[in-house]
Recover the amino acids of this structure.
C-alpha cells in the first residue's frame, strides 16, 4: 500500500514541483545533479541509525502480538 500511494500520489506531485522549480529557475540542473545523489546516499546511510534509534525508543514492541520475533 505504501509503494502504491507513493507512485500514485507522491511521484506525480514531486515531478510537477520539480518541473516548475526548474522552469522558474529555483533549481539549476547542475545543482540538482550534484545534490540529489548526495541526499539519497545520506538517507540510505541513515537507515541503520534510524532503526537503531527506533529500537531504543520503543524496546517493548519486539514482543508485541502479531510481530515476528528474530
Amino acid at each position: 500500500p505504501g509503494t502504491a500511494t507513493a507512485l500514485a500520489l507522491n511521484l506525480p506531485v514531486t515531478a510537477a514541483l520539480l518541473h516548475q522549480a526548474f522552469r522558474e529557475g529555483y533549481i539549476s540542473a547542475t545543482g540538482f545533479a550534484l545534490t540529489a545523489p548526495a541526499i539519497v546516499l545520506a538517507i540510505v546511510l541513515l537507515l541503520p541509525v534510524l532503526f537503531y534509534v527506533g529500537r531504543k525508543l520503543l524496546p517493548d514492541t519486539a514482543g508485541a502480538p502479531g510481530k515476528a520475533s528474530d
